Amino acid sequence: MVKLVYTAITTLDGYISDDAGDIDWAEPDPEVFRFINDLEVGIGTYLYGRRLYETMLYWETFDAAKEQAPHVVDFATMWRAADKVVFSRTLETVSSARTQIERVFDPTAVLRMKETATHDLSVGGPNLASQAMRPGWSTRSTYLSRPSPSEAGHRRCPATFIPSSSSGLWTAS
Predict the structure, then answer these.
(1) CATH number, domain containing residue 145
(2) Coil, strand or helix: which one is 143?
(3) How many whole angstroms separate alpha carbon 35 and alpha carbon 50?
(4) What percent of the chain has pLDDT over 90?
(5) Which of 40, 49, 90, 161 is least enclosed, having the fewest CB within 10 Å?
C-alpha cells in the first residue's frame, strides 16, 4: 500500500507560520530544496485545503524559461505532473490541471484513495494532516525545522504526531 506523506517546514518550536500567517521565513535554501524534491519524487496526488492550494498555484504558472535553478524547475515539473484534490467548501473553481474539488473531507475516502493509488499521497497543511493522519495507516511525517522570527502562529500538527524534539538549523524527523 502507498504512504500518506506529510512534510512541513517548521520553527524549532513546531510552528509552520508566524502569528500573521506568513511563511516567507521558511523558504528553503537550495540544499534543503533538493532534499524536499527527493522526498516528493514519489508523490502522485497532493491533498490540500484551499489556502495551501492557493499558495501552491504558483507552480502551475511558474516560468522555467527564466533561467531558474534546476531544483526549482524539478519541483515545478513534479507538482504539475501530480493530481491535486482540494478540500474546500468555498472554492468555486480550480486554476490548475489535474485538480478536483471535494466539499467535505472524508477520511474513509482518503483511505480508499490510498488503497487504489500506485504512488504516495501527500497531505498538505496541519489542519488537513490532523484529520488525515490515522494511527495504523501507512504514513510518513517529515519536519524540517529552523529558527524563525516568531514564537507563535499555526502549529504543524496535533501533538500525537509531533516528534518529541528537534535540533539543529535544519532537521528532518
Answers:
(1) 3.40.430.10
(2) strand
(3) 26
(4) 46
(5) 90
